[in-house]
Design brief:
Layout (H helix, E strand, L loop, with lengths): L1 H16 L15 H8 L11 E7 L12 H12 L5 E7 L4 H6 L2 E5 L7 H12 L3 E5 L8 H7 L9 E4 L4 E3 L14 E2 L4 E4 L9 E6 L21 E9 L2 E6 L11 H14 L16
Length: 291
């Protein structure tokens, strides 16, 4: 137990010391409006089929320079966006949902590094998934270590084994997965963000939607050279069905500008709709907007 805690502490200290150098050379990709419109398609339904409550879990971060892990700013942005959708209510909660949140939510979005979860917390997640709730876990939500989290979210941090580094370009997409989340995307796309690899959890227990190889671990000052890539297909986006519930996981989400990227928004909003068993159409107007 002590060695496990020491590993976690060393990991966090290392992240803090290198935070100012984390991929600061990266810039948001430019997207073709015509290609975006083709992927999104026409809007046929302007409202969800029922009233929906989305609970957004946020936290604070002092290990990264501005522009990375911007939990509060992203929370505020999506509050403004999602409240534009008819029949949708949005509620934000710091660190972890309350019992009332779990009882009334249709979707719980985790964009924060979670504190150590207790048995009672996992019991609440399990009860929520058994009744058919949806979960979206973004980037740092996977940093909470342990097989217990991997059993719910699909993948989770493995201290001593999991590594992070710049996300190589391009990412490989599987547009044929039955969820429809990747429908219309080309087989390879440019995503500018950070990568986690060698996480806890089995790919046999999830449906992988996109992958990327890993390069050199740690901060970077330029794009990785092809010779430094490991050639493996590490998951970037995935879905998992747990009991009656649905879960979507996203490794991208490190950079603040990623949440403005229309491609990432398409993926994220489609995933939200999928977890709630709702049509994507009412969320389409949010793809290209500043609120």
């Amino acid at each position: 137990m002590f060695s496990r805690l020491l590993t976690c502490l060393c990991l966090l200290i290392g992240m803090a010391l290198s935070s100012s150098a984390q991929h600061s050379w990266q810039r948001s990709p430019t997207r073709d409006p015509k290609q975006i419109a083709k992927i999104v398609g026409p809007i046929r339904d302007t409202a969800p089929t029922r009233d929906l409550k989305i609970v957004w879990v946020w936290g604070t971060d002092q290990n990264h320079a501005p522009g990375f892990h911007e939990y509060i700013e992203v929370k505020d942005m999506f509050e403004g966006l999602l409240q534009q959708v008819p029949r949708v209510t949005f509620e934000a909660v710091e660190k972890f949902p309350t019992e009332q949140h779990w009882a009334t939510a249709d979707l719980v979005v985790f964009y924060a590094q979670l504190d150590t979860l207790l048995e009672q917390d996992f019991d609440q997640i399990d009860s929520y998934l058994r009744r058919g709730g949806g979960i979206v876990a973004i980037h740092a939500a996977m940093i909470q270590p342990g097989e217990e989290l991997a059993a719910r979210f699909g993948l989770a941090w493995d201290p001593g084994n999991t590594q992070w580094g710049v996300l190589p370009i391009p990412a490989t997409i599987d547009p044929a997965t039955p969820t429809g989340i990747m429908k219309g995307f080309p087989a390879e796309i440019e995503l500018v963000d950070e990568h986690y690899w060698n996480l806890l959890g089995s790919v046999d227990d999830i449906t992988v939607l996109a992958t990327a190889p890993a390069g050199v671990a740690g901060p970077s000052t330029e794009p990785p050279e092809k010779k430094t890539l490991d050639g493996k297909a590490w998951p970037l986006f995935w879905v998992k069905e747990v009991s009656k519930g649905r879960v979507f996981g996203s490794i991208p989400g490190h950079n603040r500008f990623t949440f403005d990227d229309p491609y990432f928004r398409i993926i994220l909003l489609r995933a939200m709709a999928w977890t709630m068993r709702q049509p994507f159409d009412p969320f389409k107007p949010l793809i290209i907007t500043d609120q």
